[in-house]
Design brief:
275 residues; mainly alpha; MetI-like fold; 0% strand; globular
């Protein structure tokens, strides 16, 4: 808000800063949204101007056996990987937050390393590990590696939530005779649930959008939706890819809105906790 005491230079900077922020926002959003109108183009090429409005590419997407198989694989692999990442990530976050032991920083670094290690290295290492075991082209290998990629997101979000957790609630439950397992499920988990769910959503998005590891580990029957899009770009550039991309954009927006709602709920619960 403009102050009546601003100098002319401060007023110029006030408007310049907001214009620059708007331009940066457009630079980030426009390349993503430009694909959406192309998915409704009646023409057979991904070019502007549009030749007309049509839903033919969505019909092609949902009537194609290859595209539907890839979508089904994504909806199978991503939830399974998310469930594993959520369980192991939550347990690791609790252990790292409450435990005090030698090498704690090293363990934390190793657990979040899949987030910073180039995914190509993860893909090659995964292939070299699973191929000799006969699991190179299997759902199990994809689910396990995708879970490993999602664990760091769960650890970070749950650890951040536990930083504001009131440990007096755990002590009170223990003083009333509750076992550690009962305390976890009846006291701790409900309060850190927003952080757990946020991490799970990040893990789900990571698995659902992942393509590099899938290139190394997936066989013809395990091709996921991003892998199918990658193949389509290389072999036959069709507006069907734009339709699939539009669905992924809508899915990502829904995830972001859910994360924002969970963040607000977590803040509300934190302010309501007794001191």
């Amino acid at each position: 808000m403009l102050s009546p005491y601003m100098s002319p230079i401060e007023r110029v900077w006030f408007y310049t800063l907001r214009i620059l922020c708007a331009l940066v926002l457009l630079f980030l959003i426009v390349p993503v949204l430009v694909i959406v109108p192309l998915s409704f183009n009646s023409g057979s090429f991904l070019v502007y101007p549009l030749q007309g409005f049509s839903m033919r590419w969505y019909e092609t997407l949902f009537s194609s056996a290859d595209w539907m198989r890839s979508l089904k694989n994504s909806m199978l692999i991503a939830p399974a990987a998310t469930a594993l990442a959520m369980v192991f990530g939550t347990l690791a976050a609790i252990g790292l937050t409450r435990g005090e032991f030698r090498g704690k920083a090293l363990v934390m670094t190793l657990l979040i390393s899949p987030m910073v290690v180039p995914v190509v290295i993860v893909g090659v290492a995964s292939y070299l590990f699973f191929a000799p075991l006969g699991l190179g082209n299997s759902y199990l290998s994809l689910i396990l590696v995708h879970a490993v990629l999602g664990v760091p997101f769960v650890i970070i979000t749950v650890s951040a939530t536990l930083q504001g957790f009131n440990q007096n609630l755990v002590r009170a439950a223990a003083s009333l005779g509750a076992s550690p397992i009962t305390t976890f499920f009846r006291v701790t988990l409900p309060l850190i649930a927003p952080g757990v769910i946020s991490g799970a959503l990040f893990a789900f998005a990571t698995s659902f959008d992942e393509v590099v590891v899938t290139l190394f580990l997936a066989g013809p029957e395990q091709i996921t939706l991003p892998r199918q899009m990658f193949s389509g770009i290389r072999e036959n550039l069709s507006p069907t890819i734009a339709a699939a991309a539009t669905l992924l954009i809508g899915f990502s927006i829904a995830l972001l809105l859910t994360l924002e709602w969970l963040r607000g709920r977590s803040e509300k619960m934190r302010t309501q906790q007794p001191a």
